[in-house]
Amino acid sequence: MAQDYDFVFNVELYEDKPALKLPYNVGEDPWVAAHNFLERNDISQMFLDQVAGFIQQQTAGITLGADTASVVSDPFTGRCLHFLTKNYR
């Protein structure tokens, strides 16, 4: 079963390999999301601060659900749709 995220960032570590997906939900601890991403992709925890900082930089000032007039929702299920991606090199 797929999980919905507020953001899914593309993280390109190598030019010859596909980008890795870094999922993140607004309100989630950036360090926990960074730790899980690094662990899931077998990347050194040495990059924890860098990845957490990237998440904070990309989501600075964003709050979802604060202004319901600007939220797009599915008319059949009522669920919010958020498909934001960014590339990180």
Plain-language structure description:
- This protein is an alpha+beta fold and 89 residues long.
- It has a single domain (7-58, 76-88), classed as PFU (PLAA family ubiquitin binding), C-terminal domain (Ubiquitin-like (UB roll)).
- The protein has 2 helices and 3 strands.
- It has helices at residues 30-40, 48-59; strands at 7-11, 20-24, 87-88.
- The chain has a 3-stranded mixed beta sheet, covered by helices on one side.
- β1 (7-11) and β2 (20-24) form a beta hairpin.
- α1 crosses α2.
- The termini are far apart.
- Mean pLDDT is 78; it is low at 67-71 and 80-89.
Write the layout of secondary structure elements.
Blueprint lengths: L6 E5 L8 E5 L5 H11 L7 H12 L27 E2 L1
Parallel strand pairs: 1-3
Antiparallel strand pairs: 1-2
Helix pairs in contact: 1-2
Indicate the low-confidence ranges by residue numbers.
67-71, 80-89
* Overall structural domain count: 1
The main sheet orders its strands as 2-1-3
Topology pattern, helix = H, strand = E? EEHHE
* Oligomeric state of shown chains: single chain
The CATH topology comes to Ubiquitin-like (UB roll)
Query: What CATH architecture label applies?
Result: Roll
Number of strands: 3
Mean pLDDT: 78
In brief:
By secondary structure, the chain is an alpha+beta fold. It has 2 helices and 3 strands.
Main attributes of the structure:
disordered C terminus; alpha+beta; 2 helices; Ubiquitin-like (UB roll); 89 residues
